[in-house]
Design goal:
CATH superfamily of the largest domain: Hypothetical protein af1432
Strand content: 5-15%
Number of strands: 5
Distance between the termini: 55 Å
Order of helices and strands: EHEHEHEHEHHHHHHHHHHH
Number of domains: 2
Keywords: Hydrolase, Phosphoprotein
InterPro entries: CheY-like_superfamily (IPR011006), Cyclic_di-GMP/3'3'-cGAMP_PDE (IPR052020), HD/PDEase_dom (IPR003607), HD_GYP_dom (IPR037522), Sig_transdc_resp-reg_receiver (IPR001789)
EC number: 3.1.4.52
Organism: Novipirellula aureliae
Protein name: Cyclic di-GMP phosphodiesterase response regulator RpfG
Length: 368
């Protein structure tokens, strides 16, 4: 059975029309549509349209060879990632290294097997799918955060803080059975979805400038369950999308507390999934060190002290230990991804509508 046509046609680049047509025919046998460019400049014009995400280019071409073309594709870097496969009649190591150094993703020596070419293209499709998935996740997260006046940098910081904590924990013996490279990448990709449930909270509550009533606050806390349930439904419908299981756990549990006083389910200790415990610290640190309408940003040391005091009540004590080892890296991330002061809000840090009068109660007393 032939493969269904690729959603994005493949761009074949070769100054030899016969060789290019031969390759296009081979691709068609596997269901791929393709377009020919006879030189590097023509190829760049095609790529500029955004319609070609996979490029197969001969190396030996006049004027702009395949390696130079690859280098120019990477320099321009527009229209999403372009997966580049170089074809060459030379198989020496120096040629391979030069191509990879220019940014090529794969290298095939002539004469090639059509079946091998098909497998290389499939590998490229998987890479592009991962990139598209990451972009989709981040777009959904930004949609949710845009309703509460958070910025894109907030999401970038959350994912980087989460990655740093997870990477540190991966070196601890008690976590090595759980945390591997896939886990680290998954939490980096899915942590921005932590507050996606905000899309289900009415604007009159989400954006209310005054104090929330008890009934309104109860509705506000439902964003964790809304987000978790939504992602769980999608995960059930698409069991092949394993990353959605972690996204569900993060959205549902990042407001739970180690002592069981969090929401929405009052989970305690290790009942809370590790990814939820990790994102809880990332989210709180970012809230404490960010400008809010009712307060200036707390300095780094004040935020560190607050998180340290929350060990065993608000946070997993082990994760606080990991955070304290990494606090300087958190400070660096905050400095490099900082925002200009804006009217931002956070569930952890109360707005002026919440009833808090002291610094201690402001930070940790109410499950928000």
């Amino acid at each position: 059975m032939k493969k269904e046509p690729s959603p994005v046609p493949i761009l074949v680049v070769d100054d030899d029309p016969i060789a290019a047509e031969t390759l296009c025919y081979a691709l068609s046998q596997f269901g791929y549509s393709s377009v020919i460019a006879l030189n590097g400049m023509e190829a760049l014009e095609h790529i500029r349209t955004g319609n070609y995400r996979i490029v197969i280019s001969d190396v030996e071409m006049p004027e702009m060879n395949g390696i130079d073309l690859c280098r120019e594709i990477r320099r321009r870097g527009s229209c999403g990632y372009t997966y580049v496969i170089l074809l060459t009649g030379r198989s020496d190591t120096a040629s391979v290294v030069a191509g990879l150094d220019a940014g090529a993703d794969d290298y095939i020596a002539k004469p090639f097997s059509p079946r091998e070419m098909q497998m290389r293209i499939r590998a490229g499709e998987r890479i592009l799918l991962l990139e598209s998935r990451d972009l989709m996740i981040f777009a959904l997260a930004k949609l949710a955060d845009s309703r509460d006046h958070d910025t894109g940098s907030h999401l970038d910081r959350i994912r980087e803080f989460s990655r740093l904590l997870t990477l540190e924990l991966s070196t601890w013996p008690e976590y090595q059975a759980l945390i591997d490279g896939i886990y680290i990448q998954s939490i980096y990709e899915t942590s921005p979805l932590h507050d996606i449930g905000k899309v289900g909270i009415p604007d009159r509550i989400l954006l209310k400038p005054g104090k929330l009533t008890e009934a309104e606050f109860a509705i506000m806390t439902q964003h964790a369950k809304i987000g978790g349930d939504t992602l769980q439904a999608v995960a059930d419908a698409h069991p092949e999308a394993v990353f959605l299981r972690m996204a569900h756990e993060i959205a549902m549990t990042h407001h739970e507390r180690w002592d069981g006083t969090g929401y929405p389910n009052g989970l305690a200790g290790e009942e809370i999934p590790l990814c939820g415990r990790i994102v809880a610290i990332a989210d709180v640190y970012d809230a404490l060190t960010s400008h809010r309408v009712y307060k200036p940003a707390f300095d780094h040391q004040k935020a560190v002290n607050i998180i340290r005091e929350g060990a065993g009540s608000h946070f997993d004590p082990n994760l606080v230990r990991a955070f304290l080892k990494l606090e300087s890296k958190f400070q660096e991330v905050k400095a490099t991804m900082n925002d200009a002061p804006e009217n931002e809000d956070s569930e952890f840090m109360p707005r002026n509508r919440y009833e808090h009068t002291s610094v201690t109660s402001l930070q940790l007393s109410q499950p928000v």
